[in-house]
Amino acid sequence: MKITVDFEECLKDSPRFRATIEEVEGDVCELESKLDKLVKLCIGMIDAGKAYNAANKQFVNGIRELAQQSTKDEVIESSLTKFAESLSEMINYHTILFDQAQRSIKTQLQTFVKDDLRKFKEAKKQFDKVSEEKDAALIKNAQAPRNKQHEVEEATNILTATRKCFRHIVLDYVLQINVLQSKRRSEILKSMLSFMYAHLTFFHQGYDLFSELQPLMKQLGGQLDQLVVDAAKEKRDMELKHSTIQQKDFSNDDTKLEYNVDADNGIAMEGYLFKRASNAFKTWNRRWFSIQNNQLVYQKKFKDNPTVVVEDLRLCTVKHCEDIERRFCFEVVSPTKSCMMQADSEKLRQAWIKAVQNSIATAFRDKGDEGEKLDRKSSTSTGSLDSGGESKEKSLKGESALQKVLAIPGNACCCDCGQPEPRWASINLGITLCIQCSGIHRSLGVHFSKVRSLTLDTWEPELLKLMCELGNRVINKIYEARREELGARKPQPGDPRNEVEAYIKAKYVDRRFVRRPSDAELQNKVVSLSKQEKRLSSSSEHLPPRAPPPTPKLRPGSNVSGQSVKSADSGIQNSADGSREMLATTPSNNSLADADVAESPPMPATLPASSPCKEVVFYEPKEYSSGLQLYWASCARSLPDMAEALAHGAEVNWVNTEDDKRTPLIMAVQGGSLVTCEFLLQNAANVNQQDAQGRGPLHHATMLGHTGQVCLFLKRGANQNAVDIDEKTPLTIAVDAANADIVTLLRLAKMNEEMREAEGPYSQSGDETYQDIFQDFTQMASNDPDKLNRYQQYDLQRP
């Protein structure tokens, strides 16, 4: 009910005014109560919605797992995969709906309650106070004796001042009441209308999504009749088999009834056993035990989560127990505890003991293969210090990462369809994507595109810098170079998903729109990138002191693009090992990496003289290739040229057989750029691949004193125990060079590895001190690299 208080009436302070004020105050109190209740209900609805979305995501993951399990049935696999994608899109629509509810109902109404109603309450307090003061002044004025003139004057003055103050306060109070009554309608209707429009959009999106799915659903409905017939036939066959098995005699072979083997699921043995509790009463309980995946586990009921008795069977032994009263007992002993169990018969006890012994032997045989798999996986890790644990990086998340990435020109719209305000990114391509295109990119596989949320995921500083180095404009210039020439239409927001998916696959999988360079263009590109230059400006990353960068050298008499290369006195310098190398003077004007350069700083004084890092020299190769372009672009720190080389089909682990079998990742170390190394690792570069000297990227980063790169490689699983042809590990090199930072990192990593091995092969936590220190080094390497130069600078300044 709308109640308006008249300004003239309030000055009279009549009973009608007082009654109106009382009614208004009651109405406002009730309004506040209702709004608080509505906000709380909205919060509850949003929390329930988030819980629903989380459970729904798990359900969709279950559908995907079921589809993967049904690989032999193409109909089920394809149908469930399509259903999972559609339901995943609906989860995203639900998330947007709940976000809109939070903005329109919770935030807007809470602001109205906290701001407008708070002002009303403050005005009411002032009104009540001045009303009491006016009443007191009236009473005092009435009580003033006639014969005491000074008291009469004092009471009259007080009454006059109080009345004047009352008029101001009451007018302000009435104004606040009228404004509140007027504003409440607009605020409430505005929030509810926004909420209803969010629902309208949600149901429209759902309708459009399932309209595309309807033909498939109709097709599956037509196939159900045949499926029902097939199921009935299978039922008859199973009933016949059941009847046949029921007639068999198992009296002389109880082990067939008490346990079974499921090798396909990794179960070597399972069945019921009595287990002695570890409490003071030593009670015995019957539990379902199983040996699976190198573990001994048990559960009380099928729905219960298995309890692990032995995490790694390689660390335990099994033996008979004849010194207790109960029969058929045996004991599994591990370094930390033992478990006493009882079988139902002697045959079953012998079967369990044999199964445990066989599983121990199998686990030892599989240990080597498992280690190789872990090494391969570690080279393509995308972030955390421990692959299985929660990342503790001091990283950017949410709006901070979103603002930094979207600030890059071209990133404000989806790279593939142009949808404004993208909230997803492909971290190995360096582009931003809308929610629909991000789902399509995920379906391509991580070897083509690794998708991450700009608002929900955590961003490591080096990965964020990688995103800022590339961007949609740079990548589209490469992957869409021939699109207009071929007459291909680029998708627009709102286009059907199948059309967008076809375009994205043609763009990134088939690379149909990439312009292939001619032999002459590729030759010029490689020579240009091989020049002794640095692509650093005032806004680019600062690098630690490093060895002289790769110096191009051509054989005398060679000719590139029709220009003769001549030596010059200024083109000769001493390399790290004392040799003199010829510098190329070939000009270049067609490389993405060309830029103004500055003089290289000298080699750090801390570099060990016994094992210097060989200077990279450019010799004219026998054949120019995209792999060679990636090789030199990595050294030149030119991410656009690196992305172009990968688009042309360059192998990320390409080996330069003419230059000590070095790889692009090793050249990125030579170039000194942390972001270049991160880009190669995100595109599946092998962090442990060695050159002809037996040195991997970690060796080279240690020799050059690149602390940030050492930190990055250790996080990505680099093998710090690898030795080169001089039998030196990275730690040996760092100690010889007296580089305290790198020695600290290597020793901490080694200590953490030993601690995890001591805790057991299934430990994922790692040492917190180790992780905290690596966080600090990661931050310094990306945001304040000058701090990592303190030891090198000190050594260079010493007399």
From TrEMBL:
Biased composition regions of type Low complexity, renumbered to the chain: 379-388
One Gene Ontology cellular component: endosome membrane
Localization per Swiss-Prot or TrEMBL: Cell membrane; Endosome membrane
Regulation: GAP activity stimulated by phosphatidylinositol 4,5-bisphosphate (PIP2) and phosphatidic acid.
Top-rank taxon, per record: Eukaryota
Domain Arf-GAP as annotated: residue spans: 399-521
Major location category of this protein: membrane
Residue ranges of ANK repeats: 660-692, 693-725
Domain comment (free text): PH domain binds phospholipids including phosphatidic acid, phosphatidylinositol 3-phosphate, phosphatidylinositol 3,5-bisphosphate (PIP2) and phosphatidylinositol 3,4,5-trisphosphate (PIP3). May mediate protein binding to PIP2 or PIP3 containing membranes.
Protein name listed in UniProt: Arf-GAP with coiled-coil, ANK repeat and PH domain-containing protein
Annotated source species: Channa argus
UniProt lineage: Eukaryota, Metazoa, Chordata, Craniata, Vertebrata
